[in-house]
Amino acid sequence: MTNLIIFLVLMTLGYLVGQMAEKRHYKSIIQREKRLSGMPAIASRFPPTDKRFDQCLVTGNTVVSVDYFKRFIAALRNLLGGRVTSYESLLDRARRESMLRMKEQAQAMGADYVFNVKYETASISKGRKNAIGSVEVLAYGTALIVCDRGTGHEI
Q1: Do the beta carbons of residue 42 and residue 114 sit within 8 Å?
Q2: Who wins on pLDDT, 154 or 38?
Q3: Is residue 148 predicted with pLDDT exceeding 80?
Q4: Is 139 exposed, middle or buried (0-12, 13-18, 19+ CB in 10 A)?
Q5: How far apart are alpha carbons 134 and 18 in whole angstroms?
Q6: Closest Cα to residue 146, out of 43, 3, 50?
Q7: Which phi and psi (to 5°) does residue 114 adopt?
Q8: Coil, helix or strand for 60?
Q9: 131 in helix, strand or coil?
């Protein structure tokens, strides 16, 4: 009986703390996305040809961990089949955070665009039975800095 109570307390704590952390992270993401909405991040392989640009590689890397409650819900979902929504929000947060970090790096360099944007994803720190413990997402692209501004980035 004691083990069941400990299990339920840990699950409740995992749920409450995980929900609070996720809401706080989404709030931060939404604020930063609004601030950086003026900087396009394009998946196209071809840069705009209307101006001369200096180029530089920019990256944004994020590692997000799974809480115990989501891991438990995902294990139940694996028994029944279907969408594992508890992991979808994890990947969504990691992708958006990586994109924001990449854009912030580009903005600090004075870039106007980021093109040829790509993502790489990996699961790391696997626990027992290869259950997902953390997810790493790397966003990378080429920042374009306009040469005509006299910023010292002329080609």
Answers
A1: yes
A2: 38
A3: no
A4: buried
A5: 14
A6: 50
A7: -130, 120
A8: strand
A9: coil
